[in-house]
From TrEMBL:
GO molecular function: adenosylmethionine decarboxylase activity
Keywords from the named record: Autocatalytic cleavage, Decarboxylase, Lyase, Polyamine biosynthesis, Pyruvate, Schiff base, Spermidine biosynthesis, Zymogen
Cited InterPro entries: AdoMetDC_fam_prok, S-AdoMet_deCO2ase_core
GO BP term (any one): spermidine biosynthetic process
Transmembrane segment boundaries: none
Entry superkingdom: Bacteria
Any one Pfam family match given in the protein's UniProt record, by short name: AdoMet_dc
Signal peptide bounds: none
Protein name as it appears in the record: S-adenosylmethionine decarboxylase core
Lineage of source species: Bacteria, Pseudomonadati, Thermodesulfobacteriota, Desulfobacteria, Desulfobacterales
Cofactor requirement: pyruvate
Length: 125
């Protein structure tokens, strides 16, 4: 796993916020696909899942309707919201264990069939 862009040991953890646009509607509306994504992502970035992936559909307001996902990992949390109206995925990965955020962005964009994406990384101290 490449972590060459991970900063020196002066931080506690890293939070990556990834927005993926124009995703494949059938994938982001499929709870089993979202669960499969979490398993594959955790394997890819070597994160140990803690408990089952929660995937719940909610949202009376069409602007926010869609699935939301949470997955505890031994080093923190992966979460996401899948917006039906815009076919956008909002994915967050927070961990005190190093991982390559660009790898997460590329994998997630490909998995959900997104046309483009944006990555923001915050180092926690």
């Amino acid at each position: 796993m490449a972590t060459s862009t991970y900063p020196p040991e002066t931080f506690w953890g890293m939070a990556s916020a990834i927005d993926i646009y124009d995703c494949t509607p059938e994938i982001i509306r499929d709870a089993d696909a979202i669960r499969r994504f979490v398993v594959e992502l955790c394997d890819l970035i070597e994160m140990k899942r803690f408990g089952k992936t929660q995937v719940i559909h909610f949202g009376e307001d069409e602007k926010v309707a869609g699935f939301s996902m949470t997955q505890l990992i031994e080093t923190s949390l992966i979460s996401g919201h899948f917006a039906n109206l815009t076919n956008t995925v909002y994915l967050d990965v927070f961990s005190c264990k190093p991982y390559p955020p660009e790898t997460v962005r590329q994998f997630a964009q490909h998995f959900f069939g997104g046309i483009s994406s944006r990555l923001n990384v915050t180092y926690r101290h």
